[in-house]
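Hi R.,

As promised on Friday, here is the backbone we talked about, encoded as structure tokens. Could you run it through your design pipeline when you get a chance and send me back a sequence?
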């Protein structure tokens, strides 16, 4: 009995002296993880927004980021073509890279799956912009999303 009590006491000491570290959950506020809807697009010139293109006539574009994968779909009632794609993504604080693995026939006709799309990333708690840069690093087009999940 003394041995059993001694063993229980020893286990209690070992367990209590172990440093418990809670796992870090990726917060949505600092992450692309989740579902996003395209709100508008900007045309840029000389570092300034020159035009805003709003979604009209039921146009919707959704992106879902999860565990290094991205899926996007676009619905445009005025366009009979299907638009969707699936692939992988990675991002840093200031950049986003996406590479499609497969996509709709229409998208595959204009895009090669070895191409990596690179964007400047401006990520906020409930919105983000993916900004296309020219060869000199100047913005010329951006898509602006809001979090819906």
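Update: got your reply. Pasting your designed sequence below so it's all in one thread:
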């Amino acid at each position: 009995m003394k041995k059993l009590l001694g063993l229980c006491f020893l286990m209690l000491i070992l367990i209590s002296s172990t440093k418990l570290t809670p796992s870090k959950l990726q917060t949505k506020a600092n992450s692309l993880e989740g579902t996003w809807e395209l709100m508008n697009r900007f045309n840029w010139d000389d570092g300034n927004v020159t035009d805003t293109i709003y979604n009209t006539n039921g146009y919707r574009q959704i992106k879902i980021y999860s565990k290094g994968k991205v899926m996007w779909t676009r619905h445009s009632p005025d366009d009979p073509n299907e638009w969707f794609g699936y692939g992988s993504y990675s991002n840093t604080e200031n950049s986003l890279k996406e590479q499609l693995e497969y996509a709709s026939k229409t998208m595959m006709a204009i895009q090669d799956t070895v191409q990596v799309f690179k964007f400047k990333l401006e990520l906020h708690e409930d919105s983000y912009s993916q900004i296309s840069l020219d060869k000199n690093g100047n913005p010329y087009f951006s898509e602006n999303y809001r979090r819906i999940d």
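One thing I noticed while checking it: The longest strand covers residues 34-45.

Thanks again,
M.
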